[in-house]
Amino acid sequence: MNTVVVGRDDFLREFAASLKFERNLSDNTLDAYTRDLNGLLAFLKERGVTDWSDADAPTLHDYLTTLYDLGLSTRSAARRLSSIKTFFNWLAANDYIERNPADKLDAPKLSRKLPDVLSVEEIEQMFATADLANPRGVRDRAILETFYACGLRVSELIGLTLSNIFFDDRVVRVFGKGAKERLVPIGSSAVTYLREYLKRGRPILNRQAAGENVVFLNARGTRLSRMGVYNVVANAARDAGIERKIHPHTFRHSFATHLIEGGADLRAVQEMLGHVDISATQIYTHVDRQFVKEEHRRYHPRG
């Protein structure tokens, strides 16, 4: 039996190397494992544990409880537990420890709430509330269409400039979190209403010649604020008779969910949303699984 001293990094490096070559994990995933285990390492040192083989289940449970007390999300805590169990399984499999203290360690129960999603019919009802006889109504319809067509964040929508829209290529250039740039497809309906807004709505709103290059303007001819966008969405939901609270982000959730329900590749949806880690996108697959179950219940002879 090898002595596994907590203070040494060589076992963590060997563990990471085995994951890389045996599971072909990405560098980002390996970095996450290393960060998680270094956090446990610091906790064990504070408890006076100097050997991995001296770690026991109650101590590991205390570590997870501490994470909760510090406000770590249940999803992040679950990932930490996964890292711990994988590492101790590896130690046991290589005879570095005689017993596995993480073997029966329970995973935390995830309390993650699934995102609210609009139905296609509800979205159409919200679209129909825009008064196309006035400039602000044309703008509001273009905003709702763009949200649903592109799955944008509020900050991304209000940051759109005229030069970001490529009508011929049917894409918009978006600058997301960390100023990361991406190109997002935009559908024909959204293109139609964007063109209409730029032709009939924006010139009137911009009558004061504010000179801003942003696409969506307020009544003063300046950049529309986040609160202004929230009001556009809230008012459309109210006028459509939707009683639950609808936010701009609801359109982003609906965009992703409807794509996945339609069979879109998860990686493609990840790219359109601007998610760096696909795990951020996989929350929508839970909605998709529910959709599949409902379809089975409705149409299978023995559902």
Which architecture of the largest domain would the CATH scheme give at its second level? Orthogonal Bundle
User: What is the helix fraction of residues, given as a range?
Assistant: 55-70%
Rounded to the nearest angstrom, the distance between the terminal CA atoms is 54 Å
Order of helices and strands: HHHHHHHEEEHHHHHH
Total domains, how many?
Answer: 2
- Secondary-structure-derived class: mainly alpha
Uncertain residue ranges: 295-303
Shape: elongated
CATH topology of the largest domain: hpI Integrase, Chain A
**Can you count the beta strands?**
3
CATH homology-level superfamily of the largest domain: Intergrase catalytic core
Total count of helical runs of at least 4 residues: 13
Strand content: under 5%
CATH class of the largest domain: Mainly Alpha
Radius of gyration: 25 Å
Strand order of the largest sheet: 1-2-3
Brief summary:
56% of the residues lie in helices and 4% in strands. By secondary structure, it is mainly alpha-helical. Strands 1-2-3 form a 3-stranded antiparallel sheet.
SSE arrangement:
Elements: H1 10-23, H2 27-46, H3 57-69, H4 74-93, H5 120-127, H6 135-150, H7 154-158, E1 165-166, E2 171-175, E3 181-185, H8 188-205, H9 226-239, H10 248-261, H11 266-273, H12 278-281, H13 283-299
Antiparallel strand pairs: 1-2, 2-3
Would you write up a description of this structure?
With 303 residues, this protein is mainly alpha-helical. It has two domains: 10-93, DNA polymerase, domain 1; 120-297, Intergrase catalytic core (hpI Integrase, Chain A), CATH 1.10.443. Helix content is 56%, strand content 4%. It has helices at 10-23, 27-46, 57-69, 74-93, 120-127, 135-150, 154-158, 188-205, 226-239, 248-261, 266-273, 278-281, 283-299, and strands at residues 165-166, 171-175, 181-185. It has a three-stranded antiparallel β-sheet with strand order 1-2-3. A hairpin with a 5-residue loop joins strand 2 and strand 3 (181-185). Helix 1 runs antiparallel to helix 2. It starts with 9 loop residues before the first helix and ends with a helix.
